[in-house]
Amino acid sequence: MDHIKLTRNKIDINLIQQLTIDKSCGACSIFVGATRDSFEGKKVISLEYEAYENMALKEMGKICSELRVQWPDVKHIAIYHRLGNVPVTEESIVIAVSAPHRKAALESVSFAIDKLKSSVPIWKKEIYENDLIGEWKANMECPWPPFSETSSRTFEFSSCKIEHQIDNISDNKLVQIKVNDSELNRRVKCFLKRKRDEINLYNIIDFRQQTTDPALLESIVGKDSCARTQSFLVKQQQSKGHLKVCRATYNSGPQVRPNYSFQLNKLMTRQNDQYEAAKCKVLRNARLQNIEDYMHITPDDDDNIYNRIKNIENRILMLESTSPEYKYNIKFETDLKNIGKRNSKKEIYLSDRLNEFILDIKRQYEQ
Amino acid sequence: MNMEGSSLLVNINVLFFAKSRELAKTSRAEFTVESVIKAGNLLNQLIDSFNLNTISNNLIIAHNENYIENLDTEIHLHKGDEIAVIPPISGG
């Protein structure tokens, strides 16, 4: 019988073994896959499994059928996979197969877990101690290309199989490296990092002038270059090895400073003085215009400021002769003082005269 | 090219899992597409519509719970069919 289940609870191994017990069977092989607490030196604090549940069950059913075709003796099969949050060290997968003899049981269990890893749509996310976003994993057995970020970390042994091993190296140009997987991965990683740095270096050099002296290059790149491109290279799907840059970020340079565009615009303004002068002119015109509006003068010559002031003076003189109190309401003395230094003498003279004149009139009026 | 097939549009359900679910920001969506379409073409449309560019080379699709092994395969879609976007699996 086939027992297939996806469960969110802890898997009871004893229960699974009991499912496979049969009077005719002298062997029961159980594979238990558990969650590890570390990945490449990073501490895994929790794991999350998710599945395309209907399809996963279907694919697990297919595995059972294949097992029965290859090992017709197989009696019972149980495949339990855990979903949801799985604490570190707990079982994520249990496969049990019973058969009359151990060979079929052992071999079929091994086949089943390999097949499951390459065909059942279940995904695992590892969440690390210092990186709570986590990372979706990809099985080595997965038949389609895994994430590039994963493949850059681990060497894909399947992509270049070692056909034959050389025991005695006669050619002294060849070296055989005999290390374990993690050491080899570390070396591959270091190599990739060095190549990455090299590409970055050449990006900077390309950006600058053509220099070939390596000592000079060092000094240029170290401090003075403004090129700081961090390019990400990806292999195009159907390309024969050419790389295309898919993204480039510029992490430093003037453009990252605050108010960069404002500062740039300010620098790009052609003549600062002209701008200040124009601003001053606008301000002065506005004040003059206010006075003109107030006094109902329509300026006949906008550009000639002296003519306009002269008109105002005339109007004041006219007002003086008709309604002198008006003068106190509009306070010409201070306003006209600010219009222009060149006129200040005239204004003061004018205002003083006005004051005296008005006071005289007042006195006379009171008497 | 089959003109009759390409002009017919159908509504299908699209499922997203794992990283593709996070990028698409949904686990399920409705999608309108030609009823007869190459798997690769459908996948590209899904990649463009659901922000999956960063993992575009790592995806395959399943049609009604069956993997489409070859992206050149022509699929015949019916209303309500289920297409799942499958990133690299990591069960076990």
UniProtKB/TrEMBL annotation, chain A:
One of its GO terms (biological process) is Mo-molybdopterin cofactor biosynthetic process. InterPro entries: MoaE_sf, MOCS2B_euk, Mopterin_biosynth_MoaE. Keywords: Cytoplasm, Molybdenum cofactor biosynthesis, Transferase. Pfam families: MoaE (PF02391). Gene3D superfamilies: Molybdopterin biosynthesis MoaE subunit (3.90.1170.40). SUPFAM superfamilies: Molybdopterin synthase subunit MoaE. Its EC number is 2.8.1.12. One of its GO terms (cellular component) is molybdopterin synthase complex. It is found in: Cytoplasm. Its main location: cytoplasm. Substrate binds at residues 101-102, 117, 124-126. GO terms for molecular function: molybdopterin synthase activity. It catalyses: 2 [molybdopterin-synthase sulfur-carrier protein]-C-terminal-Gly-aminoethanethioate + cyclic pyranopterin phosphate + H2O = molybdopterin + 2 [molybdopterin-synthase sulfur-carrier protein]-C-terminal Gly-Gly + 2 H(+). HAMAP family: MOC2B. Catalytic subunit of the molybdopterin synthase complex, a complex that catalyzes the conversion of precursor Z into molybdopterin. Acts by mediating the incorporation of 2 sulfur atoms from thiocarboxylated MOCS2A into precursor Z to generate a dithiolene group. Belongs to the MoaE family. MOCS2B subfamily. Heterotetramer; composed of 2 small (MOCS2A) and 2 large (MOCS2B) subunits. This is Molybdopterin synthase catalytic subunit. It comes from Drosophila hydei (Fruit fly).
UniProtKB/TrEMBL annotation, chain B:
Pathway: Cofactor biosynthesis; molybdopterin biosynthesis. The keyword Nucleotide-binding applies. This is Molybdopterin synthase sulfur carrier subunit. Keywords: Molybdenum cofactor biosynthesis, Nucleotide-binding. GO terms for cellular component: molybdopterin adenylyltransferase complex. GO terms for molecular function: nucleotide binding. PANTHER family: MOLYBDOPTERIN SYNTHASE SULFUR CARRIER SUBUNIT. It comes from the Eukaryota. GO terms for biological process: Mo-molybdopterin cofactor biosynthetic process. The lineage of its organism: Eukaryota, Metazoa, Ecdysozoa, Arthropoda, Hexapoda. Signal peptide: none annotated.
